[in-house]
Amino acid sequence: MTSPAKPFNRLLLTGAAGGLGKELRQRLKPFCNTLRLSDIANITPADDNQEEIQLCDLSDKQAVHHLVDGVDAIVHFGGVSVERPFEEILGANICGVFHIYEAARRHGVKRVIFASSNHVIGFHKQTEVLDALSPRRPDSYYGLSKCYGEDTASFYFDRYGIETLTIRIGSSFAEPQNRRMLSTWLSFDDLTQLIARGLYTDAIGHTVVYGASNNTPNWWDNRYAAHLGYQPQDSAEQFREKVEAQPMPPADDPTMVYQGGAFVAAGPFGDN
Ligand code: NAI
Ligand code: 15L
């Protein structure tokens, strides 16, 4: 995708110290004049006058308001990214996303890219094909927190006109790591294309898009996000032989049955 002009002066990336944040750090620079990087974890400064670093705990409302002051758009990737006890999810993901949208409202930010997850629909079977209107079936406290984030995005558009591209990311890693990821894999380049389309496309309202590369079999139908013009360039197919060399799990293993894979069986925590 070509990027004709930088649509935003200052772009905020949360979760910048994480796996995807490290990948996106360079890839987002063509879309802004200044990239503000944030995380609760330390970020090593680069010798680069396009970046500014502001550490912040997303569960701290005042710190998030300070973080968002002066930015024109937000790429919200920070938070707990796996299944954990509810109390950990609550502060980072639920309070965190609320703080981000409240700060966006107060500071006049009109565009957010929200890293949602396939775990909002994780209890659907791998035999189903879903679109954005399919009922959600969260598979974890983590998936529930992403449902809250999606609904927060919807509310802040309807109530305040803040537009969001919600990306239900499948599995975004350098390579698919197991058979399930032959369907859920999203290359870093295709993820970057989705973010760019979310930043550049006019009038997206609250759009939900499934974040997967051009994989087979494909579990997700992006018809309701057609206005983005997303055209994945990569496919997990190139890794099939390597992945299928792994031992075959039993047919009733969650990774072979459910779209959310092992998350459907994680926890509960703290019963002892
Ligand atoms: P990650 O766990 O590597 O990165 C998340 C970052 O958020 C970490 O650097 C962490 O320090 C930061 N963080 C955690 N709690 C925080 C808090 N209270 N305040 C501020 N920062 C905090 O995860 P990854 O893989 O980079 O994912 C990034 C985003 O994309 C996450 O929101 C995740 O849920 C979402 N996602 C990722 C997928 C993937 O395949 N990598 C799939 C689906 C969703
Ligand atoms: C996610 O939401 C997680 O953040 C990531 O670590 C992977 O587990 C991914 O989903 C997945 O479902 O493969």
From TrEMBL:
SUPFAM superfamilies: NAD(P)-binding Rossmann-fold domains. CDD domains: SDR_e. Residues 12-183 form the NAD-dependent epimerase/dehydratase domain. The keyword Oxidoreductase applies. One of its GO terms (molecular function) is oxidoreductase activity. Keywords: NAD, Oxidoreductase. Belongs to the NAD(P)-dependent epimerase/dehydratase family. This is NAD(P)-dependent oxidoreductase. It comes from Pseudomonas eucalypticola. The lineage of its organism: Bacteria, Pseudomonadati, Pseudomonadota, Gammaproteobacteria, Pseudomonadales.
